[in-house]
Every structure is written in structure tokens, then in C-alpha cells.
Please model this.
Amino acid sequence: MHDLKTIREAPDAFDRGLARRSVAPAADRLIQLDRDRRAVQTELQSLQSERNEASRLIGQRKAKGESADDLVSRVGLIKDRMTELDAQDRALGETLDAHLAALPNLPADEVPDGADEHGNVEIRRWGEPRVLDFTPKQHFDLGEKLGLMDFGRAAKIAGARFTVLSGALARLERALGAFMLDQQTQQFGYTEVSPPLLVNDQAVFGTGQLPKFAEDLFRTTDGRWLIPTAEVSLTNLVADEILDEAALPLRLTAFTPCFRSEAGSAGRDTRGMIRQHQFSKVELVSIAHPDQAVEEHERMTNAAETVLQRLGLPYRVMLLCAGDMGFTARKTYDLEVWLPGQGAYREISSCSHCGDFQARRMKARFRSAGAKGTRFVHTLNGSGLAVGRTLVAVLENYQQADGSILVPEVLRPYLGGLEVIRG
Model:
């Protein structure tokens, strides 16, 4: 959500920010709605004062035994007008809020211009892809040949974009999640949380999925939403709260199933585990002081990178352009892991700094010691990492000519010492 005061003070800058995200100018419309609402509220306050004064005079006249019919009639007219104005105030407020809620966050100055992924900028690379003396297979071919990855049976019981993992691959998925949690809690100081997987409307609005992206989510018959990422649950833990400045930053992590409808992705990654309706992810969330948030963003990205480094998976870091960022982000780094089977880098984590955009929607604030007023926190979120896609990367990067999979050394303790996965 955007700050109306900032829009009023710098409407041209606001519209330039929207233009970088291919959104039409909105400042004039927002300012006019705000001006109309303020005029209504001013008239309401004036009428309230007039009604109070008339009521006072009515009491005086009645105390003297004098007629007050004219004042009583005037108070009736004032009440009728105030009822009309109350309705106008609510309608203007709802319209203004709806306009604001539909607008994305503005990109940070250092974010490059661009309409889509072609405008993203590579920041750095880590690791060298293995040179294989055989033609690498994609993860679904490897998994099916091992007899441990079954898309047909998943489709039978749930439909497309689901997978059944069994045996060593099911165990590998669990091991990856546990390894990531240990890294984030023990090395980077995140607090592990086991949050709800079902959330209400306000929670999904707070992190920006509603109202614009409802079609990307799954909704239950009682009106709750399955989380598309634990970002929703973790970030909303501070909704409607005033935190002590000394408590910042809060660093939270969770290993959860996630659920997405994948609306608009027809024909993309239809085979395999890259794009599914249900997947597991270790999420990272930071609730930070505004002055610490830029540094916290770099720290979070490093926390995600460290997982890939310890797994020995080559990757690159991309700074997303304005047109490719998520709705709530002001700056995003994507980590893209090398997949030999595809011969390409694919996204495995997004780490985003959202500024106070989500905090305004959630009413999440902090108070400095000795200060009377409050300020909005800054929120950050990232994948540390997407577990399913990490499993894909391990299969493809650690495959051997016979179709077996070497287990990365750091994962072997989580798999009882298993060194090679065979069919």
C-alpha cells in the first residue's frame, strides 16, 4: 500500500515509478479522490460542530420555557445531511483503498528498467557446471528410471502438476528441508516457526496476494486460503502490532508445503517438478528497521546462496528489472541454479525487499525508545530454498552415466550415510 502523503508531495515521481512497471499514471486520480474525501470530512466536522451548538441552544431555550422548534428542525436537517456525508465518506474511502490496493510497489532507484526477464541483469556467478562425458538427462527421466518419481499415479489421484516421490527420493526431499532449516537457524540466526497453512482474507491481503492475484491461490469452502508460500503466515505474525525497536530485526523461517494454482502457466514446464500445484519450500522472512533493511536484503540473499554453495550447485544471481519483479517488491534478487538436463539456469530462490509496502497493508509498526510516534517496519522475504527445485538440481547435477545419483556430502548425515541413490 502506498502513502498518500508521499503521493501528494511528489505525484510526478510516483507516476514515473508506476510507468517503470508498465502501470498507467494514477497520482491525479488518487489525489482527487483524497481531496474529495477530505472535503466531505471537513463538511462533516463543520456540521458536527453546528449540531452540537444547536443542541446546546435547544437546552438553553427549553430551560427558559422558550420555543426551540426552529433549532430542532435545523438539527434534523443537519442529521440528514450528515447521514448522506457519512455514506459518501465510506464510498470514497473504499474507492480510494481499492485503487491503492491494486497498485504495485515502486521499484528502487537501482533497479534496472525492463518489461520482462530479458531486462534482468546478472550480478555474479558461483561454481562451474560439471563437464559430463555423457548426455545429461532431465530430472523426470532420472526419477522415473529410478522408479522413485511417479507422475502417472499422482495424476490419477490429484490431476496434473503433482508428483509422488517414494523411497530414497522422498527421503532426499525431507533431508533437503532439514538441512536448509539447520543452515538458516544455526548459521544465520533465523527462528524456526511451524505456521498455519490456511489463512484468512486479511493475511493474504497483507502480503499482497489479494485482491489482484486471487486466481493464483486455492481457496477452501469455508473461505480460507491455502498458503502459496510461508511468507504469508510468517510476515503476518506482526500484523496490527507495534514492536519495540530493540526487537528488530526479526528473522523467521519455516519449512512448509505451498500451494499455487499456476494460473497463466499453461504449456510451461508441463513435465516434471519445476512448476507444481503443491511443493515444499523453506521460507525466510525478516521484519527490519527501515535503516537496516538494505543490509538485511543482502544478508538474506547470502543466506540463500550459502545453501547452494554447501550443496555444490552452480548458480547465478540476477537483479530483476522493474517489469519482472513481484507485486510487493521494490528490489529482488533471483538465484538461478544450473540444470544440466535443460542446459540452462532456472530460478530456485527470490529474495525481495518490500520496503514498508506490506507493513502499511498489515499495519505493522515499531516504536523507538522514548519516542511518542511509531513508524512502519520494512519486510523482506526469500526462499532459502525451494525444496522441490533443489531436489531437481541435485538429481541433474549429481547424476552419473548409469542413471544413479551421488548424494552431496552435506546431505549424507541426513540420509543415514547413503552415498548413492540407485533404482
